[in-house]
């Protein structure tokens, strides 16, 4: 997600809302714990916020009350950061989930992939996963993210050669159907695909084992039952599939 996208829902809100949102975005996505008023103004200008070049950011910050605090100075310029009240204010304005750190990290990680994915089906799966994560639908997020990951692996092993692929599949499931095109994977278990990917050399053992754990989470999330994955579990799941499949 870019700052332009993050601020878009706030363009009709107050200057204070947009200034706080800049601090929030920079803290969460750019690891900038505090900014000067000049840095805030520069961010607003770069995000193409109307009339931001003439905005008296110092005045806006000065009237923000308990939403901001000052951790010190940078040279002769005072730094400003959000308080927890300020973070809660932005989460409320943007309808962000309460479990902000892990959720937002997962959202940012998935959205960061989208521009680099040309396959429309895989891209759509990940977009759906982001939407689910934004509203706290964690089980659905896992299911959609896994669909994008396994389809990526299927494409890779299919491109590695059909005879070699079918030999690897038959090694682990002698009754498996012949795979000659991507649609044929509908009849092959994901667990077999992972084993075949290891045999072909797409995955090493540790990667295969980690993705098997991710598949187990996907199955627990996608089948009827009382299991509800937590935010940290889903965040770890996203980190694993991104680092192994999409990096």
How would you portray this structure in words?
This protein has 247 residues and is mostly helical. Helix content is 63%, strand content 5%. It is built from 12 helices and 2 strands. It has helices at 3-7, 15-29, 37-46, 57-62, 84-94, 100-114, 120-134, 138-159, 162-172, 190-200, 205-222, 231-246, and strands at residues 68-74, 77-82. Strand 1 and strand 2 form a beta hairpin.
List the main descriptive attributes of the protein structure presented here.
247 residues, Arc Repressor Mutant, subunit A, Four Helix Bundle (Hemerythrin (Met), subunit A), 2 domains, two-stranded antiparallel sheet, 63% helix
How do the helices and strands line up, and which of them pair or pack?
Elements: H1 3-7, H2 15-29, H3 37-46, H4 57-62, E1 68-74, E2 77-82, H5 84-94, H6 100-114, H7 120-134, H8 138-159, H9 162-172, H10 190-200, H11 205-222, H12 231-246
Antiparallel strand pairs: 1-2
Helix pairs in contact: 2-3, 2-5, 6-7, 6-12, 7-8, 8-10, 8-11, 8-12, 9-10, 10-11, 11-12
Write a brief structural summary.
The protein is built from twelve helices and two strands; from the N terminus they run ααααββαααααααα. The protein is mainly α. It folds into two domains: about 5-95, Arc Repressor Mutant, subunit A; about 100-245, Four Helix Bundle (Hemerythrin (Met), subunit A) (Up-down Bundle), CATH 1.20.120.
């Amino acid at each position: 997600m870019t700052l332009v996208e993050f601020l878009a829902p706030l363009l009709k809100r107050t200057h204070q809302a947009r200034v706080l949102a800049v601090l929030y975005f920079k803290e969460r996505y750019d690891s900038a714990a505090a900014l000067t008023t000049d840095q805030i103004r520069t961010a607003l200008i770069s995000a193409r916020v109307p009339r931001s070049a003439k905005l008296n950011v110092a005045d806006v910050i000065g009237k923000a009350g308990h939403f901001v605090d000052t951790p010190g100075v940078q040279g002769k310029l005072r730094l400003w950061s959000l308080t927890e009240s300020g973070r809660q204010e932005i989460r409320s304005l943007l309808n962000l989930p309460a479990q902000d750190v892990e959720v937002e990290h997962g959202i940012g990680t998935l959205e960061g992939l989208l521009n680099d994915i040309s396959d429309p089906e895989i891209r759509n799966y990940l977009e759906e996963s982001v939407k689910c994560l934004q509203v706290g639908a964690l089980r659905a997020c896992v299911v959609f993210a896994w669909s994008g990951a396994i389809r990526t692996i299927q494409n890779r092993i299919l491109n590695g050669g059909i005879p070699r692929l079918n030999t690897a599949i038959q090694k682990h499931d002698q009754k498996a159907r012949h795979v000659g095109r991507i649609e044929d994977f509908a009849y092959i278990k994901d667990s077999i695909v992972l084993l075949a990917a290891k045999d072909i050399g797409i995955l090493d053992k540790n990667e295969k084992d980690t993705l098997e754990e991710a598949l187990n989470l996907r199955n627990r999330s996608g089948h009827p039952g009382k299991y509800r994955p937590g935010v940290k579990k889903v965040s770890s799941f996203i980190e694993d599939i991104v680092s192994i499949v999409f990096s």
